[in-house]
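Input structure tokens:
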């Protein structure tokens, strides 16, 4: 954030505000961690603050301090809608286009509130009065830590806030292995531990609470994996029937796409997941090195994200989607084998 943005935020927060904090649809650890950390911070500064999530999120994220106060727009619609309509200030975290909020999009577009965006994805929209956007950042949670630091308030970070921020950084960096993890990231994490973040407990809460059905679904996914050595690519398909067979719950496929990259020589990993309810194939892309899955997803699958992690969608069958995907790889062979 530049000095003008910092001054603008200080002025906005110098008087009591009715604040709503919004994560993206299907929020992940970074989205929930950042919104909860900011919620604690703003409440402690004396503001009215509410988090409105566009929909539900995985059970393994619901242990975080303050989780019980999040309003799920789908199940607490009237409360969430009232909070959004009464808001004087809206923070949007971990996304940069209203379209990423699903059914909240028209409500946000019609809002008379002032907006602050904190996000690390590419190509931000210009809806916010204050935009803190940095694609080099490991996570929105690291940016929330910076945001608090810019305001001179790191001394006010509580153990609850530290746990939430640590969670988002850990999950969005693949437990600190992605290239977006910098020395600054580790410095922030060290400070969070000093402020009370329980790193071992957080890791266990996120990664070591599997159900038998999730592990069986993982086995199915790995059995379905197709390896295309000539393109240094691996992809997984999961049909709705397979999801139903293994009693799929929201969040159960989190991280499955990364298994492709654990194979020696593979640079590009993809998972195609059928969603009958929405009538789409949801796609996650991961890569290593300089192969940009953000550009690939934007060009071919109505998606986007980061250079090494992105999402997309397809409106045709899972078989047609996979076939189309494979047909594209010849044009990228040289890049993938560089």
């Amino acid at each position: 954030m530049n000095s003008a943005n910092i001054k603008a935020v200080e002025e906005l927060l110098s008087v009591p505000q009715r604040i709503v904090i919004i994560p993206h649809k299907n929020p992940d650890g970074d989205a929930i961690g950042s919104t909860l950390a900011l919620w604690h911070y703003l409440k402690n500064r004396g503001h009215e603050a509410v988090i409105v999530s566009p929909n539900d999120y995985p059970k393994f994220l619901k242990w975080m301090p303050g989780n019980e106060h999040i309003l799920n727009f789908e199940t607490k619609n009237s409360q969430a809608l009232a909070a959004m309509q009464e808001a004087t200030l809206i923070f949007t975290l971990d996304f940069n286009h209203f379209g990423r909020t699903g059914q909240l999009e028209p409500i946000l577009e019609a809002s008379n509130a002032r907006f602050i965006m904190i996000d690390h994805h590419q190509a931000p929209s210009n809806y916010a009065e204050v935009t803190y956007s940095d694609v080099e950042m490991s996570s929105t949670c690291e940016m929330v830590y910076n945001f608090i630091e810019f305001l001179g308030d790191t001394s006010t970070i509580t153990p609850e806030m530290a746990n939430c921020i640590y969670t988002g950084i850990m999950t969005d960096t693949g437990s600190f292995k992605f290239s977006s993890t910098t020395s600054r990231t580790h410095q922030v994490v060290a400070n969070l531990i000093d402020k009370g973040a329980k790193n071992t407990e957080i890791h266990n809460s996120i990664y070591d609470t599997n159900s038998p059905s999730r592990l069986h679904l993982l086995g199915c996914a790995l059995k379905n994996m197709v390896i295309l050595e000539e393109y240094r690519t691996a992809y997984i398909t999961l049909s709705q029937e397979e999801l139903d067979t293994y009693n799929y719950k929201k969040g159960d496929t989190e991280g499955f796409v990364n298994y492709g990259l654990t194979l020696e020589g593979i640079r590009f990993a993809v998972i195609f997941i059928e969603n009958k309810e929405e009538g789409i194939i949801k796609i996650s892309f991961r890569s290593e090195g300089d192969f940009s899955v953000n550009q690939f997803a934007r060009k071919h699958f109505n998606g986007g994200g980061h250079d090494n992690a992105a999402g997309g969608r397809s409106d045709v069958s899972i078989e047609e989607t996979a076939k189309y995907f494979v047909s594209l790889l010849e044009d990228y062979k040289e890049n993938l084998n560089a």
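The radius of gyration is 20 Å. The chain has a mean pLDDT of 96.
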